[in-house]
């Protein structure tokens, strides 16, 4: 009789191996951290003598669940700004808070909380991607869980790296130090094609191949991403990453929501693992991944929760149910993604998607002892029908809850016994987490008080506090002025634009107002050759009127507008919005040795009859400004427009007046 360290008996053993073996009265033999045998109880008990025997009380014994895609430290950001679009949530809230607060200590705190939540819910192994990944790895190992820990690499500065070269170098160090660890597989995570460059993807691939570790990334999460790729590169995302070389590595790709048949074949040939994240895809309205087609193509499709701030929990039972229900609902076929398949996705297929299938994901000899016990006798899971042992799959997927998990073992070590966590003391961690949330609240409240700090948080902005002298008159017919401009003054430069301005107004006028401007540069043949988007935050103006001209002093902060108008609307939440469109001819002229900008504007929306002549100059001294104001009146005379009616209102006021009429 062979000897082993431990025998687990009196369990309904669900192997989740290729043969989907079930042992309704089963047992399992362990030596150290390894499974030695699994089978009928009578057979196992007869064959092995153990130092310790554990009676499982008739509970279900199955491989631990595998969370194939997450960002565990983000437990600390759950609920930070929900019910927004992905870009507003990520760029407007998550990333600014991460830039301000993320540190190795914070990552450790968030990771331990996540590990506690996952252990309680029967997860034994997960795939992570975050900053300071070494802290994730250390905390995970301390909690006793198994994980693929991938150090994020981005094309822009991140909380843990000033440049992508830095993050790549720290990924290399991290992988070198942790490779061969019994619980942690270190890895590198080029975040996504749209946050990386071909060079970054290539360098990450080379690094992963050199150390023979997987790559963890996001692929084809949203239709916008795919549309953008078609537009920029003439192909969808998967063929592009293949061309760049990424698929030469062992890749774990999260999402793959918008992939077509050809792309699925490409992923399958490359043995790319896929992490399907049903909650996250639903919450962020990303779409429905073609899970059935991916499975039929032989892809290893695992299940993931994604980060706990886009979910907002780490509950794999919920992911299993949703994966099944969505696939059924979308295909209108209730036989699609049965419970048995979904449980395999949450275990063996997930481990294989992470390229860790040799280690974990099923109960079979040679694999690590990563397993859980589930109590299926709760009120919500009674009664049960025993004529077909396979009914156990539907009991686990459709009725059991994460709170039904009673015991968790990873690598032969109990992490939870009878619902008591053995490796993590959760109370002090939650006190720290609450204190952190108060600091973030204060940070965001302060930021939300000022339009400028909100602008800086997403775009950076450059300030100019300046005096602006401007003169604006309304012309019934601008042709005389146009002729005079061509003949009477020295023209240095001329340009023609279509300008589309959207002004955001706010309840407190001292906040100023924000203008989003789309400038189309119009060529001589009327074609549009260039489009520029800018945001300008204008402080309230102090005005002083002269004959025909106005001296304004105000602060202006200008930033390139890199997001859509829709993004800014959702992010700044203005009280009012006024749109003004105009056709602008602009001259830079020299008059009496002073340079002025002259604009001739026709409002196209709202339509206002005639045209507006605007003369402008910016200056940094008040004396200079008053001198220029006098010169402008002379210029007006020179252009033959001295009798035109002065206008002091801004276009935005004209816009709102017309809108009211
Ligand atoms: Zn993710």
Task: Give me a quick take on this structure.
The chain is α/β, with parallel strands linked by helices.
Biggest beta sheet summary: 9 strands, mixed
Count of separate DSSP helical elements: 20
Overall geometric form: elongated
Q: State mean pLDDT (0 to 100 scale).
A: 92
Low-confidence stretches: none
> Residue share in helices?
25-40%
Strand content: 25-35%
Termini Cα gap: 96 Å
Q: If you compute it from the alpha carbons, what radius of gyration comes out, rounded to the nearest whole angstrom?
A: 32 Å
Strand and helix map with partners:
Blueprint: E1 2-14, E2 22-31, E3 34-40, H1 41-47, E4 48-55, E5 60-63, E6 65-70, H2 86-101, H3 104-120, E7 123-130, H4 133-143, E8 146-153, H5 164-178, E9 184-190, H6 198-211, E10 215-219, H7 223-233, H8 237-244, E11 251-255, H9 261-269, E12 273-276, H10 278-283, H11 291-296, E13 301-303, H12 316-331, H13 339-353, E14 371-374, H14 391-399, E15 405-410, E16 413-417, E17 420-421, H15 426-448, H16 451-459, E18 462-475, H17 479-488, E19 490-505, E20 513-522, E21 528-538, E22 542-545, E23 549-560, H18 565-572, E24 576-591, E25 594-605, E26 611-619, H19 622-638, E27 645-646, H20 651-660
Parallel strand pairs: 1-4, 1-5, 6-7, 7-8, 8-9, 10-11, 11-12, 12-13
Antiparallel strand pairs: 1-2, 2-3, 5-14, 14-15, 15-16, 16-17, 18-23, 18-26, 18-27, 19-20, 19-24, 20-21, 21-23, 22-23, 24-25, 25-26
The structure holds zinc ion.
The site of zinc ion (ZN) has 6 residues, from loops.
């Amino acid at each position: 009789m062979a000897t082993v360290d431990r025998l687990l008996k009196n369990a309904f053993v669900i192997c989740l191996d290729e043969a989907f073996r079930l042992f309704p009265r089963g047992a399992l033999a362990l030596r150290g951290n390894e499974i030695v045998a699994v089978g009928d109880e009578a057979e196992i008990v007869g064959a092995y003598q153990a130092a310790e025997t554990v009676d499982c009380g008739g509970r279900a014994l199955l491989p631990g669940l595998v969370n194939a895609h997450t960002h565990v430290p983000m437990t600390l950001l759950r609920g930070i700004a929900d019910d927004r679009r992905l870009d507003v949530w990520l760029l407007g809230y998550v990333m600014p808070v991460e830039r301000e607060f993320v540190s190795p200590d914070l990552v450790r705190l968030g990771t331990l909380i996540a590990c506690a939540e996952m252990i309680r819910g029967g997860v034994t192994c997960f795939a992570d991607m975050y900053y300071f990944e070494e802290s994730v790895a250390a905390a995970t190992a301390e909690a006793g869980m198994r994980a693929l820990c991938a150090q994020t690499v981005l094309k822009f500065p991140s909380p843990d790296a000033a440049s992508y070269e830095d993050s790549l170098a720290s990924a290399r160090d991290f992988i070198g130090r942790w490779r061969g660890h019994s619980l942690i597989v270190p890895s590198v995570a080029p975040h996504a094609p749209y946050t990386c460059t071909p060079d970054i993807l290539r360098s990450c691939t080379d690094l992963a191949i050199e150390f023979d570790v997987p790559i963890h990334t996001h692929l084809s999460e949203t239709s916008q991403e795919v549309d953008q790729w078609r537009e920029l590169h003439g192909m969808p995302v998967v063929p592009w990453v293949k061309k760049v070389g990424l698929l030469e590595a062992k890749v774990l790709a999260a999402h793959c929501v918008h992939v077509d048949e050809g792309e699925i074949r490409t992923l399958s040939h490359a043995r790319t693992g896929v992490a399907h994240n049903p909650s996250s895809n639903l919450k962020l309205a990303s779409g429905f991944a073609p899970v059935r087609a991916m499975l039929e193509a032989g892809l290893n499709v695992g299940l993931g929760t994604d980060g706990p701030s886009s979910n907002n929990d780490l509950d794999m039972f919920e992911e299993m149910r949703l994966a099944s229900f969505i696939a059924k609902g979308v295909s209108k076929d209730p036989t699609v993604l049965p419970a048995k398949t979904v449980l395999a996705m949450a275990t063996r297929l997930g481990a294989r998607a992470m390229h860790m299938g040799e280690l974990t994901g099923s109960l079979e000899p040679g694999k690590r002892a990563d397993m859980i016990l589930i109590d299926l006798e709760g009120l919500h899971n009674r009664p049960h029908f025993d004529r077909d042992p396979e009914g156990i799959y539907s009991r686990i997927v459709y009725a059991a809850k994460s709170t039904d998990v009673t015991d968790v073992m990873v690598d032969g070590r109990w992490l939870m016994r009878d619902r008591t966590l053995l490796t993590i003391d959760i109370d002090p961690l939650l006190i720290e987490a609450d204190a952190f949330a108060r600091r973030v609240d204060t940070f965001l409240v302060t930021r939300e008080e000022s339009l400028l700090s909100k602008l800086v948080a997403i775009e950076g902005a450059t300030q100019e506090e300046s005096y602006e002298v401007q003169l604006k008159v309304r012309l019934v017919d601008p042709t005389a002025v146009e002729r005079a401009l061509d003949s009477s003054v020295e023209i240095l430069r001329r340009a023609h634009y279509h300008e589309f301005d959207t002004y955001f107004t706010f309840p407190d006028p001292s906040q100023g107002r924000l203008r989003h401007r789309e400038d189309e540069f119009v060529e001589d043949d009327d074609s549009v050759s260039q489009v520029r988007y800018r945001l300008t935050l204008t402080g309230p103006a102090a005005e002083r009127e002269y004959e025909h001209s106005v001296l304004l002093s105000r602060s202006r902060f200008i930033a390139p507008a890199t997001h859509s108008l829709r993004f800014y609307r959702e992010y700044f939440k203005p009280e009012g919005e006024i749109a003004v469109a105009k056709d602008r001819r602009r001259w830079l002229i020299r008059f009496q040795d002073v340079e002025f900008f002259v604009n001739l504007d026709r409002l196209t929306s709202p339509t206002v009859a005639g045209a507006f002549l605007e003369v402008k100059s910016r200056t940094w001294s008040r004396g200079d400004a008053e001198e220029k104001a006098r010169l402008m009146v002379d210029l007006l005379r020179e252009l033959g427009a001295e009798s035109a009616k002065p206008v002091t209102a801004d276009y935005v006021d004209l816009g709102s007046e017309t809108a009211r009429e």
